[in-house]
Design goal:
290 residues; alpha+beta; Jelly Rolls; 8-stranded antiparallel beta sheet; 4-stranded antiparallel beta sheet; 14 strands; globular; binds 2-oxoglutaric acid
């Protein structure tokens, strides 16, 4: 099966009411929502990156994962922090937003949405790829093991800048396991090819070329990743991975990082650590109002 390098004809953004967004999401496994963040918030979020990756945490709390540190890690790696919302109020104001939660819940047909984890991604020129993967491959520690992701770009994107790319329709393929190499793989499509072969499907890659402030919501099974930044501009993103408001911990399976928030003999999730962003009952985790 031939790999399809993107055809350089990115999808046109949608500016449509919810039902059409949902139809597009169900058909393609992702949907583009332009103007999701205003310019002021985009600028505010950009201004947090250097501080975050230098370990200057506004709230005094370290994020759950801090995968690239100034002076310690190679400049060739895409920089990633997970759960920056605990460390930074600007990032929190984006990834814990009620509108973000409302759209996530609506697209997945859940009663509500709660944050699973966020990602802050910083891809300067010259940095390497993130391997193509399915987000739900990493979620066997929650029940139901389902996810939707809101990926937001803080820069205008371009194909050569290593923007996110989606494999259209791949949310209907089987769920594969975690990929062999997530950070800086030599071949970012390695595991994707095997999955396409099992699904007996063509690989239809769509690079997301959009304006800063655009959000893309993708299904937890949609294959996606990003190739090296061979352009001259930086590419920064803020990402909210959401799960159902009904999600609980799996009684046996664990996540090395996130199962640390599980109480003994109790699978319920504490809203302090996994806040509910939006619920059709009107509930929103009260601590978010601050
Ligand atoms: O922004 C990227 O390069 C990839 C992000 C990603 O993997 C995700 O949002 O799940």
């Amino acid at each position: 099966m031939p790999d399809q390098r993107p055809d350089q004809r990115p999808d046109q953004p949608d500016q449509q009411p919810d039902q059409l967004q949902k139809a597009r999401f169900e058909q393609d496994g992702f949907v583009i929502v332009p103007d999701f963040l205003d310019a002021r918030l985009v600028a505010a979020a950009r201004s947090r990156f250097e501080k975050l990756f230098a370990g200057e945490f506004e709230t005094g709390i370290q994020p759950d994962e801090w995968n690239w540190r100034e002076g310690r890690d190679s400049d060739l790696l895409t920089r990633q922090i997970c759960n920056a919302w605990k460390s930074d109020q600007t990032i929190a104001s984006i990834v814990l937003g009620s509108e973000l939660g409302r759209i996530c819940a609506g697209l997945r047909g859940w009663p509500g949405a709660r944050i699973n984890q966020d990602n802050v991604i910083w891809k300067p020129p010259g940095t390497k790829a993130l391997g193509f993967h399915q987000d739900e491959s990493y979620q066997n520690w929650i029940v139901p093991s389902e996810m939707i992701t809101c990926w937001i770009t803080l820069d205008d994107t371009a194909v050569e800048q290593g923007t996110i790319e989606y494999v259209r329709g791949s949310h209907r393929w089987h769920l594969a396991g975690p990929i062999q190499q997530f950070h800086a793989p030599d071949d970012p499509l390695h595991d994707l090819r095997a999955a396409a072969s099992v699904a007996d499907a063509r690989i239809d890659i769509v690079p997301i070329v959009v304006k800063a402030g655009t959000a893309v919501f993708h299904h937890g099974r949609t294959w996606h990743g990003s190739r090296p930044n061979t352009g001259s501009g930086v590419r920064r993103s803020v990402v909210a991975h959401c799960m159902s408001s009904d999600a609980t911990f799996h009684p046996i399976n664990t996540s090395p990082v996130y199962s640390r928030y599980k109480r003994a003999d109790d699978c319920q999730m504490d809203e302090s650590f996994f806040p509910i962003l939006w619920h059709n009952s009107g509930h929103r985790t009260p601590s978010l109002s601050g």
